[in-house]
Amino acid sequence: MKILVIGATGTIGKAIVSALEGKHTIIKASRTQGDVLIDISCPNSIKRAFEQLTDLDAVICATGSVAFAPFSKMTREQWDIGINGRLMGQIHLAQQAAKMLNDNGSITLTTGIIADHPIATGISAATLSGAIHHFVHHVALELPQGIRINCVSPSVLTESLDIYADYFPGFRSISAKEVAQYYVRSVEGVETGKVFKAYVNN
């Protein structure tokens, strides 16, 4: 299969590429480097990126910015970071991908454990990730030509604990390599409309 991985330079993105590249043709994308440049917070950037691509079988999005702050201090500008990145960025991406993927292709989005298990300052991530979960459940019923859509929702990454451990007290971390297997399942499997929760006993 020919697979576009957006966020390919990130910790999860690199693990996804490593898990898939021996078996598939991988196109790496991010905002600043890769085979294709794409900023999912900008609809025109998404459109321009897809205009450069043909014969795609799958699109994976392993990116989507959000701001972290207490609800009482969240500004509209901070909300917009996540609305434009994690929420509408991934929705616009799915909409464009559905127009040009090959029959029986797949789309995989990314959220996070905060959608189900709150943390301090995580109101934006929780709200917008939860919205993506509902979007995936519903839009799976509307996609044409056998195209599937799923979402991966990982816990805090083991590789990132030195930065984020204090935000996730008592949470069990998961390695990027383990998380990548959920993307493999989404791309190579048959499921659709699912949120794959990449964590255990949290």
Description:
The protein has 202 residues and is of the alpha/beta class. It has one domain (2-198): 3-Layer(aba) Sandwich (Rossmann fold). Helices cover 39% and strands 17% of the residues. It has 6 helices and 7 strands; from the N terminus they run E-H-E-E-H-E-H-E-H-E-H-H-E. It has helices spanning 11-20, 43-51, 76-100, 123-139, 161-164, 176-188, and strands at residues 2-6, 25-30, 36-37, 58-61, 106-110, 148-154, 194-198. Strands 3-2-1-4-5-6-7 form a 7-stranded parallel beta sheet, sandwiched between helices. Strand 4 (58-61), helix 3 (76-100) and strand 5 (106-110) form a beta-alpha-beta unit. Helix 1 packs across helix 6, helix 2 (43-51) runs parallel beside helix 3 (76-100) and helix 3 packs parallel to helix 4 (123-139). The protein is globular. The model has no long low-confidence stretch (mean pLDDT 96).
- Assign a percent range to the helix content: 25-40%
Mean pLDDT reading: 96
Task: Tell me the distance between the termini.
Answer: 34 Å
Q: What multimeric state do the chains show?
A: single chain
Quick recap:
The protein has 202 residues and is α/β, with parallel strands linked by helices. The protein has helices spanning 11-20, 43-51, 76-100, 123-139, 161-164, 176-188, and strands at residues 2-6, 25-30, 36-37, 58-61, 106-110, 148-154, 194-198.
Features:
seven-stranded parallel sheet, alpha/beta, 17% strand, single chain, 202 residues, Rossmann fold, 7 strands
List the helices and strands and how they pair.
Layout lengths: L1 E5 L4 H10 L4 E6 L5 E2 L5 H9 L6 E4 L14 H25 L5 E5 L12 H17 L8 E7 L6 H4 L11 H13 L5 E5 L4
Parallel strand pairs: 1-2, 1-4, 2-3, 4-5, 5-6, 6-7
Helix pairs in contact: 1-6, 2-3, 3-4
